[in-house]
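Sample pair:
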Amino acid sequence: MMGILACGGKPDAASPKHAGQFRVALLTPGPISDQAWNAGAYAGLMRIKDSLGAQVSHVQTKTPAEFEENFRQYGTQGYDLVFGHGFEFQDAAERVSAEFPRTVFVTTSGGRTGPNLAGMDFAFEEGSYLAGMAAASVSKAGRIGAIGGADLPPVKASFAAFEAGARAVNPGVVVIVSYLGSWDDVSAGKEQALAQIGRGVDVIFQNADAAGLGVIQGARERQVLAIGANANQNGVAPGTMLGSVVIDLPHALLTVAREVRDGKFVPRVISLGSRDEVVSWTGSPALSRPVPAAVALRIDSVRARMRAGAFRLSSASAPHK
């Protein structure tokens, strides 16, 4: 039996645990219809259900009070593993994990650990650096933009890496960065995209979850290029998408869940990136403005060095999460 909540609410207390059944829950900060960060995590939850035969549950939360309340309810119900999907879940997970030592709490984009607490650190800045190289190579105006849902450390790090990659191709490129203060306001995303386009930007990298769909919409209407984040969004607006910085969240979440189920889990910061084939830059097959061949070769070379662990972004251009 499976209890799933796909929107705001509380964990389903009506789904009893079958003897010996592995139970996994997911808290997301936004809707799983965003075709990005939250959708990828939910796909991971479904993969855990299908691959491990787990009983799963999901709830969308919006405030720190809801983070803590739902963590606590899943702990009370005896869930084996609870994911808090985002940097912002760390405080609540750290507080609640101490109360439920038999439940493992994991925060994505988190760096805190405890006896039953771990973080997953995605090297999103690696793909962002490659995206910056691509963006600078196709920008006719020499002005590119980045729009985030909020100025959280992982988002700021990815934008710093995006700028560093762009400057590696065009040292004089201008990068305009904006934050929406929302992850799900599609209208705000579109408005900010139009504002940046009004300032001469002709390529926009968005990392704004559902609000990012508004950014893509604005880019498509004004016939400039957009870059997707967290999932492969190249099909959202074919011809508009230069590419996407992708995190293979289903693979990452399943890997952790399997460790917990098998009793092999060790609390730690789980770092995943290009070397693990979890983070990647995926160019669009339907480019309206293709990346020049010489830059494409440079991107391939840097990608290979990242996968080999031989490429390191400086702390100034890509701060740690």
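The chain has a mean pLDDT of 92.
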